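INFO batch 0412 | record 1 of 1 | parsing
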Amino acid sequence: MNLDPNLTLYLGAGLVIGAVVLLSWALVGSGAGAKTRSAAAHAGAAVGDLRQVVLRQRAHKRILGPISRALGEKSKRLTPSGALTNLDRKIDLAGARASWTVERLLSTKLLLASVGALIGGYRLFGSVGLGSMIMFATLTGGGWMLPDFLLMRRASERQDNINFELPDLLDQMTVSVEAGLGFEAAMARVSKQNSGPLAQELARTLQDIRFGVPRKDAMQRLLGRTDSPDLRHFISALTHADRLGMPLADVLRVQAGEMRKKRRLRAEEQALKIPVKLIFPLMLCIMPALFVVIIGPAIIRVVNNGGFS
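INFO prediction complete | emitting tokens
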């Protein structure tokens, strides 16, 4: 079936723009839910009407918000419990619990997959073939997997930051404990003086302890929200020391020293990988240019002298 090329261009551009708008709304507006709840709480006494709070939001949030929630709730009912648990853990690892929910993640995946299916389906409708079918499957699957990819990338960066911050925060906790503060007081001081992901997790753990959760259980919850082997090793040593009654300051000092060594070893390992990573850029970019500069003049002289005739 032959279609007008201009119509194909316009419709394709419209679908791409729609996909970009949906993705931007899903990623940039990640704090809309938390801000709405906060605004409702603060405006309750002054305004007294939740409708006014909702109307103060931007138009695209008022329109897409209910649609997203409805799609998310229906998708959640159709999704296996194991997949929901996996998505929930991804949100925890990315540190996006305050702004993302499983329902919102599912609705975003569904919307992006639908946009990809529309683009691929239009291409398939215009020209049926193997290439169009591959394009349809790629766009649909890519739209469905894109939020997972972005979330896991953010989670990986967050875990790297936690591993990097851990030795410094342990040093600060060691100084605080040696100065006479208790463990919870040292955690509170460190979490207030720092702003990284580890400090945020320590503040959340401290909040659990203050709500009556035993320290051991609060630490296990901390491990569930992170994926750091170094942090797991530290919490294991801390639990062991707490059970045996060992001096907490000594444990913190030893753990801080070990974490600094691990951080230095990771930096050295990354430095050793640099030459290997530079091989392909050198081969693809620099070597062809050197080949042209060095061998090119010789080939030109040979051709001018009739060497290849």
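INFO post-check: The two ends are 52 Å apart (CA to CA).
INFO record closed
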